[in-house]
Amino acid sequence: MTATPRILVAEDEPLLATHLLKLLQQAWPAALLLPVAPHGHAALEQALSDLPEVLFLDIQMPGLTGLALIEPLLDGWPETRPLPLIVYVTAYDQYAVSAFERAAVDYLLKPITLERLQQTVGRLQSQLGLQEQARQQTPEDASTSSLMQLSMAQIQQWQQIWQPASSNGQPLLRYISASVGKQTRLIPIEEVLYFEAADKYVRVVTQQDETLIRTPLKDLLPQLDATQFWQIHRAIVVQAAAISHVQRDENGKLTLSLKQRPERLPVSRLYTERFKSM
Known about the structure:
- Keywords: DNA-binding, Phosphoprotein.
- The chain is α/β, with parallel strands linked by helices.
- It has helices spanning 14-27, 40-50, 70-76, 97-103, 114-135, 140-162, 217-220; strands at 6-10, 32-33, 54-58, 85-90, 106-109, 175-180, 183-188, 194-198, 201-205, 210-213, 229-233, 236-239, 243-248, 254-258, 264-267.
- The strands form 4 sheets. A 5-stranded parallel sheet has the order 2-1-3-4-5, with helices on both faces.
- Helix 1 packs across helix 5 (114-135) and helix 4 packs antiparallel against helix 6.
- The model has no long low-confidence stretch (mean pLDDT 85).
């Protein structure tokens, strides 16, 4: 296990942040506590700069929530380092706790007690111990492979958060209804090359043109055939048949090219596993 693990706490309420830091000092004296990130964007910037082993993330933060920062965090994290261990902190238990348990090491409900935090620290120490075992494997390339396997397991767990919800028996979309001026245009679903979330709208892109609809992407996903439309990014869903090829740059980032459009679409690290054989 890392002798002095670095911990980054992201919390927008100063009193709660101070309380958590004091408890962490008691529960894990060997840990190094980094300066508190006061909001989601600061947490993302600090995490990618300092590369801490552990993150305590408030779920509801201004700017970028604890869940929303995961995708850019994974995209920016060095592939040669194990992904950070995540603990979610929340004042509300209506969130999908079972999903957080699959994707994070633990979750903590406010107000946090020392006894409950000690349980979390035990889980974190066990996970860091597994990472250390992977590092110590020989030869060196085997160790690297083991660390990458641990990271891939984490990514696969995170994918469960972004999987589209069940359609609950509702029929799949056959047409997209879009308003163009005073007209309502019906776009056959097979003509859509990709959907892209843009502010309060979703861009519906076909070979010839594009239009905007107000239906959120998360509401569209359950109505799309998952074998026909693939999510490649938190904000992008592409028709599989429209994909020409996928290219990896020198930093390991994937971009996707379409058969009938010139633009190249980014593939988030959350979804790179889908293209391993391409």
